[in-house]
Structures are given as C-alpha cells and as structure tokens.
Amino acid sequence: MRHNPVVLIHGIDDTCAIFETLTPALRNLGWSVYEIDLVPSNGDVGLDCLAEQVAAYVKKTFAPDQLIDLVGYSMGGIISRYYVQRLGGLQKVQRLVTLASPHNGTWSALLRPNLGASQMRVNSEFLNDLNRDAWQLEQLNFTSIWTPFDSMIVPANSSEMPVGKNRQVWVGGHAWMVSDAKSLLAIAEALSEPLRVAQPCS
Prior knowledge:
The chain is α/β, with parallel strands linked by helices. It has one domain (6-192): Rossmann fold. It contains 6 helices and 6 strands, in the order βαβαβαβααββα. Helix 2 packs across helix 3. The radius of gyration is 16 Å and the shape is globular. 41% of the residues are buried.
C-alpha cells in the first residue's frame, strides 16, 4: 500500500519534539512524516491563526496535486479540523486522525486565561461554530482516538464525535497518547484504512 505523506500537529505548550516516538515509528512502517512547530504554542493566539500556519506550511511543502494525511494531538486536532473545515484542507487531506482532542471542549481550559485556551472551553463559541458543520469531516477518513484515563481532556469523552470513527484506547494518560504502543498501533491502523468511496445519489 502506498501511503500519503503525514503531517503531525502538536498540542499546547509543545513543539514537534513531542513526536520523538511517533515519528520514527511511522517512518519505520513506511510513511513519510513531516512536522511543524506552531508559534506561539501557549494559547496566546487563536487556534484559527495557528491553523493558518498549517495551511501555509502545507502549501509551501507539498506539490499542488499531492494529497496528505494529518495527525493532530490534543489542541493540534482542533487546529487540524479548522484547517480542514475552514481553510480549504478538504481538497488536500484524505485522512485526519486526532489524538485526545477536546472536540466538545475541556474544563481544564478554564485554568488558562488566554484566547487559545478559551476557544477550547466547554461550550465555547469557537467549538460550537466548528461543530455545527462537522459533517464536512464525512468527506474524508476521520478518526478520533482517545483514552478514558485523560485528566487533561475533561470529560475524557469530549473527544468523541458524531462523525467518522471514535476509537477508545486504554492508555494511562494524556501525554502518553503520542508514545504508548496501543495508541501508536491505533494511529497506524487509522492511517492505513482504505479511503471511503462516495456513494452515488439514488
């Protein structure tokens, strides 16, 4: 099977160094892996601004006809969704995998009083707006991978979505989602899934 290049999108306060286990694991399995450092990553700017950095990176790095897959960890999953749903990523991305992402908000975001964190709060205007047309994700292979032991995403099942696939893995905590063997296997399987074929109108 020929794989699309994979772009990894990190979470809050992270850099691409967070993928020191995931990146070589995917490369050993045959994927070309790309990483981007989002600046600043502490939530001082909106997730929409960080998604624009992803869009610019993709445009600069890949040929116009090169399709890609995205893996977004935590905040990176929401940034990836914004790129797909708002910035034209639907024409570029065939598979989107999110890891422990607060698709429906997290109460822990109340602990940080800045714009990026406020956008990830439960019932935030930003997430409510993004979730109103989450149906767009049905146009690609979308998988949300999460663990019930997540103390950063509160409640943990905030990662579940009404579209695509939700895959629960028994991983001991939020930070381990990018290094635990069970999570790495789930990511590789999601990236290996055959693309869905659109059904003709009846």
